Amino acid sequence: METIIKRIDLEREKPEDAEIFCEASRILKKGGLVAFPTETVYGLGGDALMPCAAQNIYAAKGRPSDNPLIVHIGDFDAVDKLAKNVSEDAHKLMKAFWPGPMTLIFEKQEMVPKETTGGLDTVAVRFPSHPVALRLIRESGVYVAAPSANLSGRPSPTRAEHVIEDLDGRIDMILDGGPVAIGLESTIIDVSGKTPVILRPGYITKEQIAGILGRIEVDPAILEEHVQEHLVAKAPGMKYKHYAPKGQLILVEGGSMEQVSTRINQLVEEAMGQNKKVAVIATKESRDCYKAPLVVTIGSRQDEESVAHNLFAILREMDTRGIEMIYCESFEREQLGQAIMNRLLKAAGYHVLHLN
Ligand code: AMP
Ligand code: MG
Question: Distance between CA 167 and CA 149 in Å, rounded?
Fold first, then answer.
């Protein structure tokens, strides 16, 4: 199929935008797929209440159909239409973080089809803050089921170009709203049980959540591969291989910045001796320490938001450049670092070299 691509200028509303959103709404209402920007990453949207739309999403992404979709809403009233038994804790979280990069898991209402929830009795709901996402949801009047708009297994898209790379010809429409602000997917919190549990770390940190609820549990599968193998992952998507570049990514940690860069420089030399195409992912603080044919700066340690923002685009760049061995520093596992390390560990297939 031919994919319609339309640019939306966030700075300036144009008269032709109305026709673009009209067309996007028509597509959603007949079960078609529209990719759109959110504040986290680009989403691939379909009507959450139409089983065939969910099936179309799985087919376009090449995603296993037991991996449930997040339903995007444009107002607070939608929660009770989709979810049952919304707890006091859930209300506190919604008030604090919606609209924004937080997804809540609730018991689902009957009206939400199992196709959308991957066969589960729970439903994932998010109220995004991005103006294009909100306008699409509100004008179409559709609850928009949307996973990240990438082919299954690839890094999530943070620009329309990434969506085009993966899904051009496979979906009906792409709304190009430019690069997204955050660059990591939403924080997922299960509020369907007695105690809220973080199933996927994201921009909203466990420290922020604990600040609202007084306490929060974190699913042990988040940073540990071995736990993940033994437990049934509670967010089914967490069990799949994710974000992985085609080359081998290795994280190096422990020791000072100097020790890490010295070890990485040795590894680079060894890999080049084997005629491998090599790259280093460095930070602004360390980039001058590296001797490698390609050194990319992911962001600054002083500003982890910059690291989150660039992470997926850099993993994609490694593939575009045909890099075979990628060495990367690691980050603290606190605050935003927890989400950054969760994505990097998955991308590396949990391949970490510990110094000391
Ligand atoms: P993505 O849309 O690509 O960010 O992936 C959606 C994530 O939400 C996946 O990791 C899913 O497993 C998770 N998810 C969606 N619905 C549920 C649910 N009902 N229970 C637990 N996790 C869910
Ligand atoms: Mg995804």
Answer: 8
Q: Is the C-beta atom of 70 inside 6 A of ligand 1?
A: yes
Q: What is the pLDDT of residues 275-293, one digit of tens each?
A: 999 999 999 999 999 999 9
Short-list 181, 142, 168, 143, CA closest to 42: 181
Tokens 């991308």 found at: 347
pLDDT value at residue 240: 54
- pLDDT value of position 64: 84
* 108, 83 contact by CB (below 8 A): yes
**Rounded to 5 degrees, what are φ and ψ at 352?**
-125, 130
Specify the pLDDT at position 241: 61
Helix 304-320 with 160-167: angle, nearest 10 deg: 30
Q: How far is the CA of 141 from the centre of ligand 1 (A)?
A: 22
Compute the distance between CA of residue 254 and CA of residue 257 in angstroms, rounded to an integer.
Answer: 9
- Mutation to probe ligand 1, out of 67, 108, 151 (largest number of atoms < 8 A from CB): 67
Using only C-alpha atoms, the chain has a radius of gyration, in whole angstroms, of 20
Q: Per residue in 66-90, pLDDT tens?
A: 889 999 999 999 999 999 999 999 9
122 ligand 1 Cβ < 6 A: yes
- CA nearest to 103, candidates 90, 89, 84, 86: 90
CA–centroid distance for 317 within its chain: 17
Pair of tokens at residue 24: 């996007």
Whether residue 184 has its Cβ less than 6 Å from ligand 1: no
